[in-house]
Amino acid sequence: MTDRSAAISRAIDGFDNGEFFSVLNRRVEIQSTSQEPSQASELDRYLFEEIGPSLAADLGVVWDVHPNPLDAGPILIGERHEGADLPTILVYGHGDTVRGQEEFWRDGLVPWKITVEGKRWYGRGTADNKGQHTTNFEALKAVLAERGELGFNLRVLIETGEEMGSKGLREFAQANKERLKADVLIASDGPRVQAERPTVFLGSRGNLNFTLSINARDGAHHSGNWGGLISNPAVQLVNAISTLVDGRGQLLVEGLKPPPISNAVRAALADLSVDGGPDAPAIDRDWGAKDLTPNERVFAWNTLEILAMETGNPSAPVNAIPGHAFAVCQIRFVAGSDHECFLEAIRDHLKVNGYAMVKVEPSRGAMLATRTELDEPWVARTVNSFEKTSGNRPAILPSLGGSIPNDVFTDILGMPTVWVPHSYSGCQQHAPDEHALAPILREGLGLMTGLFWDIGAKT
User: Fold this and answer.
1) Quick check: 459 pLDDT over 80?
2) Do 165 and 98 share a domain, yes or no?
3) Which of 58, 83, 339, 414 fits a 20 to 30 Å CA distance from 115?
4) Is residue 32 part of a domain?
């Protein structure tokens, strides 16, 4: 057995004998939801009592915890320095979760303790994100235990506000550039394209939330007496939206579309088959841009979604023309899109099409789209390592369909990013009954151990 194989076996043995489960269960039991102000002390506890001491004991990491510059969840920085001539790897994760939603979990399941049912490990954070960064830390631990050194410098960044939009993380990164400087970010979040196929993704779509509203008049008015005499803002709003996106979800405004998809991106996406598992919805292959494949629509194109609409009183409708209509919308966009001009493009388009009465307003700040180039050497290095470990080529996504704070690393810290998800799209990560699949965690542990071993190998 080679030293590389021994390190991978050491990591897998730790999974099979229950050590990995014990560590992850301990972390799941900390109710570190950033969406409940009453749980703020649990965010501190996760970093001060769990992650920091574990990093020090297992990896010899020197760590400290910093207050968030925008009065949100605290942030941990850790470092293990082995040599000035060695590469430096930054590992990121988030220790916060969404709300527990205890009352909605299936009978026999609770959010703050892992319950095992077959291959599924149920518990809040098992998939997002405690199970994922635990996998990477345990892989690093196996390499260090087997080799006595990592063979590279390690920096660690764990935030506790990702589920609140990573508030303050950008400001923190800007103020701590030197402490976070690295050759590459290697991190884990999000899902694989298929549960059975390891995945590497290089960035993510951004998102911009905005509202569309029409305030025609105060109060509602009898639809018999006034129908045909006064405008109906609900009718106007749905027709206004239909000029932005058609009945199959195709964008109709040129200013909302990204640049053409490159041949390299098309080739990478052609190799993929998206499968969210048995509980996932069926893919509507006739939804979205007609000239794109389903993969291209979600990983390389922009979409406009209506998230919520309201007019009148939906729970107790009456025979009256409402005075107001309101919709919450979102654009998911890929790198290269001119997102700063989206809202102005919508305003101009609505005005030209006779809907100047629609008010267009941002509802929160945009999360930026990012993408590390496919020919980045760290990408090839990762893919080659995974092929060496598993014998199979992983799926390569230019961009994740969802949004993560990847711009912190690409734009502020100026480094390439390689993301390796240890979950799948059917994990119910923001819903009741969140779970991880044990086979993915186990396989991910072996893959990451091999990758970290290869990065630190003397050549």
Assistant:
1) no
2) yes
3) 58
4) yes
